[in-house]
Amino acid sequence: MRDYENDKGTMMIGGVSTVEIADRFGTPVYVTDEQILRQNYRAIHDAFAKHMDTEIHYACKANTNLAILSILNQEGSHIDAVSIGEVLTCLKAGFPAERIMYTGVNVSDAELKALVATGCRINVDSQSELERLAKIKTDMPISFRITPGVASGHSAKVMTGGKGAKFGIPYDKVIETYARAKELGFDVKGIHAHTGSGGLTTEPFSQVVDVLCGLVNRIKNETGIQLEFLDFGGGIGVPYKPQDPECDLDELAFEICDTIKDETEIRTVALEPGRYIVCDSTILLTRVNDVKDAGPKKYVGVDAGFNTLIRPAMYDSYHYVALANKFNKACTAKYEVVGPICESGDYIAHERVLPDPEEGDIVAVYCAGAYGFSMSSPYNSRPRCAEVLVNEGKAELIREPEEIEDLWRHQIIPERLTR
Ligand code: LLP
């Protein structure tokens, strides 16, 4: 977990005071440090690129802010996209179509047509999708997502690679699917699997790479297709708690590339980190509205709830919290940090020691860059919040906060109901 600079009791991010950011842009607000984003990208890219040709496909579902995408485009990243909306967003941020790979599930014909029109790469998830894509276009490069029979993740809700999963070509249908793609005239270039998201061990990556290498060789022997790239998915975990271990990227990259080079003729390794790249680049600042001593529990009521950050309510995820304007004060008691949503499941942090929280204080929620804003909603009719980018002492708005009018923007009251 990242440490932040303490300037006489005020938490700083990217050389800017968190209190000044909260005062200037309002709260809640997501704040991203550009330098950390760039460092994370370079760390993961360079660890693998030492060994093989490497494509980092940033899993943009974690965070699709256009400014953040533009930074990763400057870094040379590729993209893992899951919808036509994500593909078009990445094109808007300047990514060339050939650096975007789409991996969908239960994809409609209309979406396939729109994807083909953009020229992005398509990683096919099912035999049905293959046949339907063939009716639109076949003289194009494709790859397949397979179900590896290996599952990982921080919660059962994000494990995707186990046997019988809804994702990918089932293991025993892989060879016939590659053969069929060749017969249909596709240029089949690669193989992909994703085990799940945010587990803290690297064991599943070794397992999935073993499965994929075995298939690469069988595909060569049984269909004559020599694949060019192997994509072992995303899911690299990050430390959310102070005592959580960090992933040893050098060891992971060495082991994976060694296996691929030893066992196959694959030239390019691809991976799809989302969380690793954006998670600790961003904090969420939220202001204390209310402090309540409710007998056995003490509550700190802040202005961000599960409408703004859903991970605690949805997965029981842990996010470290600190009082940004009392950064060097000693902690006094345990508190529940809760939001303004009218459900008892609405919380940000459970049983945390904090230094005497008062109305107006600023709570910083750490590691909020992955699946933070991108999963936020206007539930309870609370408009979505702003996003700010900080870089070497300067702060810039990269998303305006939504307004009350935005809640009504696409709604229609039939005329007869207004009489
Ligand atoms: N590739 C594929 C095919 C994926 O489905 C995902 C995530 C990734 C890559 C990126 O995984 P990452 O490196 O970010 O762990 N909302 C959940 C996470 C859902 C992940 C879904 N797929 C959360 O807040 O933890």
Description:
The chain is α/β, with parallel strands linked by helices. The chain has two domains: 6-32 and 279-408, Lyase, Ornithine Decarboxylase, Chain A, domain 1; 34-277, Alanine racemase (TIM Barrel, Alpha-Beta Barrel), CATH 3.20.20.10. Helices cover 29% and strands 24% of the residues. The protein is built from twelve helices and 20 strands. The protein has helices spanning 18-25, 34-49, 66-74, 84-92, 109-118, 127-134, 174-184, 203-223, 249-263, 275-278, 311-315, 404-408, and strands spanning 6-7, 10-13, 16-17, 29-33, 53-59, 78-81, 100-103, 121-124, 141-145, 187-192, 229-231, 268-271, 282-294, 297-302, 321-323, 333-338, 347-354, 362-365, 386-391, 394-399. The strands form three sheets. Strands 4, 13, 14, 15, 16, 17, 18, 19 and 20 form a nine-stranded mixed beta sheet that branches. Strand 9 (141-145), helix 7 (174-184) and strand 10 form a beta-alpha-beta unit. Helix 2 packs parallel to helix 9 (249-263), helix 7 (174-184) packs across helix 8 (203-223) and helix 8 (203-223) packs parallel to helix 9 (249-263). The longest helix is centred in the middle third of the chain and has 21 residues, at 203-223. The N and C termini lie far apart (58 Å). The mean pLDDT is 97. Bound molecules: ligand LLP. Ligand LLP is lined by residues 59, 62, 80, 103, 158, 160, 194, 197-198, 233-236, 272-276, 311, 315, 370-371.
